[in-house]
Amino acid sequence: MNLLRRRHHRPDRRKLLPDERGAIAPMIAVLAPSLLVATGLALDVGLYYSGNRELQAATEAAALAAAMYPAQARARAEGYLTRNGFDASMIKTVEVGYYCANDADKAAANAGSRFFLPNARPVQCTGSSLGIPNAVRVRTGGDSRQFLSGVLGSASPIPQLAATSSAARVDEAGIATTSDVLSLTSGRITATLVRSVNSLLGALLGITLNLSGPDIDALMRHDVDAGKFFDALAKSKCGTCTYQELTQGTYSLQDIAFAAADATSDPGTATVLRAVGVAGRNYMVPMSGLFGLGVWKNKLAGESNVKPALRAGLNAYQLIAFAAQAGPGAIDLSDAVSLVVPGSTVRLAGVYNGPRARPRFAFGPAGTETEVGNSALRLKLELGLGNISVPLLLGAPIAVNSVPVLVDVAASSARITSISCDGSSEQGVDTQVTVQASSGLVNAYIGDAPASVMTKAIIAPSDIQQANIVNLLGIVKVDARAVAGPVLGNSGPLVFGKNAQGTIGSPTTPGKSAHMANGSQLGPLLTSLPSSLVAQNGLKVTLLGACIWPLCDARAQEAQVTQQFVASLTTPISGLVGNTVDPLLDTLLAALGIQLGDTTVWITGARCGVPVLI
């Protein structure tokens, strides 16, 4: 009972605590300004980051719009910003320059910049156009939206908005140069061409090749998709290597032909390619130098269908012929390449290729990285005239030894100088590609040219010595030497596309070629050789050891007879080289994709680029 009473009278300790109600109000009154400042700064900082993101996105879009037409870069960048709610004054600079994707510039690559001003562009600038800027860099800036911090003026801790973006548009095309044989229409695959292809390519490969006319026609008329070809070759050889790494390898002709077969859309062409591949399975081909890859070099194998991607072709016949020439094979011309004509023979006794400074196929934007060419070429011919009537011996027939003829041809070249895509879509019908093409200088000689001369970098007329073409029991001897005036190479633009000299090809169709000629055919050049035989140090004729030509005295009768004798030699030589040698060489060398002194150019595909950030 007492315990209960004590509990009842225990005091409530909560009542003993001080009353703190209303104490928060003074605290809020003291801290309110600081809280407002903090909240305002947080809001302004958020607006700054939000504004910077929006400005960066708008700057990137403005750079993409400007890169589509670099010549109108500032106007297009300002137009984009104003249409999207930004003031044009926010653009600080718009610079026009070059996109360079060259791995050699590691410093720029590591810094994330592949944009170069014209005066700072690297010499090797894969991705840039030759003299035509293809990239822009846009810098923007302005005040960030501010609430509280705006009252601080220049003391505001919020920086100004700033953004930089670079973009480029890379228009690409594929180019190849070779003999005009691919322009043959159906039905013009002659028996002579078939024999030449089998003889020359078979001699290179060291095999017996038995391609038929329809087989050769199928190869010449169809392309393989270049990207798919690289991907198919890489699939079994290097996995996910780059195209550059792939084309530095050495592969069997079977590897190359089978990959080409997988990359063509024509079943007949694929069948022929596989047959050639089986025949050449032991022939190894180093591919280095055969392709100029341009901006393709860093593309990973397997990415040929990744957009945007250039769709370009490789002619099936060119690919096999050039691959065969790139290998270790040598042509034995002792028997394979001869043509018998009534009363005479023509034999191609030697083919000497100089260094090939340019690839056979190239892909990329306009500029030096899309340049192709043939190697320098020297040919040694032997013209057999058979028997001729000699006035000095009362018209008796006399056998003439083979007349040696040397033809020296400088390399031809072709370079894409511009790709016009204004108003066009990819592979658009309005696209035009302009090429600067140069045909090679041609010299021709009659006379003796030993192997040491044939391998010289430059042959001078003084290197050509007189060759004996007649020796009748030591009674009559004739030595000959002649130099034809050189046919100078021509140089000029060739245009491909709508209403142009040539058309743009595709992975399935070679398109129409365009031609840069010397202005003089080989036949007329060689025809001028006999006329130079009568020049000084040209033709030397002795009878019983005595000189009768050049004239040893001025007796009219002797001069008349000797001139008749000289004519009996020069006339058949003229007829033979003019009517037979020119078409013969055209056919034989066409089998190798070689053209004497001229160049035939093909644009194998084109892509009008879309601007991309760089």
Features:
alpha+beta, 6-stranded antiparallel beta sheet, 5-stranded antiparallel beta sheet, 26% strand, elongated
In short:
With 614 residues, the chain is α+β, with helices and mostly antiparallel strands.
Describe the protein.
This protein has 614 residues and is an alpha+beta fold. The chain folds into 2 domains: 63 residues; 441 residues, no CATH class. Helices cover 31% and strands 26% of the residues. The chain is built from 14 helices and 30 strands. The strands form 8 sheets. The protein has a 6-stranded antiparallel β-sheet, covered by helices on one side. It has a 5-stranded antiparallel β-sheet with strand order 2-1-3-4-30. Strand 27 and strand 28 form a beta hairpin. The longest helix has 45 residues. The relative contact order is 0.12.
Give the helix/strand layout.
Elements: H1 2-8, H2 24-68, H3 73-83, E1 91-99, H4 106-110, E2 115-116, E3 135-142, E4 161-168, E5 172-178, H5 191-205, H6 213-220, E6 223-225, H7 226-237, H8 243-246, E7 250-252, H9 253-262, H10 267-279, E8 284-286, E9 291-292, E10 313-315, H11 316-326, E11 338-341, E12 344-353, E13 361-364, E14 371-373, E15 377-384, E16 386-390, E17 396-400, E18 403-409, E19 413-420, E20 432-438, E21 442-446, H12 451-454, E22 467-472, E23 476-480, E24 482-487, E25 491-497, E26 514-516, H13 522-532, E27 539-543, E28 546-549, H14 556-590, E29 599-607, E30 612-613
Parallel strand pairs: 9-13
Antiparallel strand pairs: 1-2, 1-3, 3-4, 4-30, 5-13, 5-29, 6-10, 7-8, 11-12, 12-15, 14-19, 15-18, 16-17, 18-21, 19-20, 20-25, 21-24, 22-23, 23-27, 26-29, 27-28
